[in-house]
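Researcher: I'm preparing a figure for a lab meeting and need a structural model of a single chain. I don't have an experimental structure, so a prediction will have to do for now. The sequence is pasted below. Please return the structure as tokens so I can convert it later.
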Amino acid sequence: MEKKEKNTQAHAINTPPNNISPPSYGQDTSAGGVIEEVKEVFFRFERRIFSPETVALLLVAAFLFGVLSVVFVLAQTQPEFKTPQGTAGDVAGFVRDTNGTPLVGAAVRLKPEGLTTYTNYNGYYLFENVSAGEHEISISMPGYTTAVIRIYVDGQSSRLYDAVLSEGNGTVLQDLRPPRSPPSFIEMKYFLASVFAAGSVSALMGAICSWRREHFRRTLLFAVVGILSYGFLAGSILAGVAVFFLMGQKYAFGTEREEKGERRADTDTFTIPVSDQKLVCYLCNGEIEKGRGYIECGCGATYHLSCGLGKRCVVCGQEFVE
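Model: Understood. Here is the structure written out token by token.
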């Protein structure tokens, strides 16, 4: 009987480290055990939520919302245009030279009506009952520059449209029309559709890069531009959340590990060194004891053998094949 117990103890001592199961937090009913169990659950949840795959899904959703917003904008029809209610008015003014001397006989043409009149001895001209709207006055005289004045006629307000001609050749343009109205409906419609479409395509490109875990900077740029997808505001919010998630996933992307000169494992390989210092398992958050074998992923994450074999890295998605 005593010999049998010794053989059992020897077998336990010679058992390889990878057959040793980590302590189960769920079996510990003490306060410390409950805290450790909560930490373990939170750690696993955090690793799975803050991952490139989650970022990809967020950006795909932003892309879909963006496409919907583009379709919605393009489907809008122009509202019925109503002509401003204005009344006819008079167009008059004085024409002088640079010394203030009235110019007599200067030709004054009103467009688009095609009316022509000439200044009197006071340099005064007059067009009566001009229809409301935009017009152009052209004033010319041999030996002097030509003055072109763009105006807006409204019978409810009156003013003089004076001109000063200087000796020489050329044309002097003066715009006296009211400030321009906002961009037309058609211009705004296609501008917004273009912005939303660019943001949506960028979100989709970011989703592809994030899913493949390639080019962190490029993925981040695509995600930032993806905020322009709008998507009834939901798309912009989703892209913004994706940007926030990406900020903590830099080293989950292959190119970033290469640029930093860190050791990167191939997609089908990983190393099993022997621990010479205290490490933490990325899956169970437990401590890896010195002298025990463990899994070291190319991204730098470490795991107990029992926790990692046959599973994937929670950081970069590397599969640990037994």
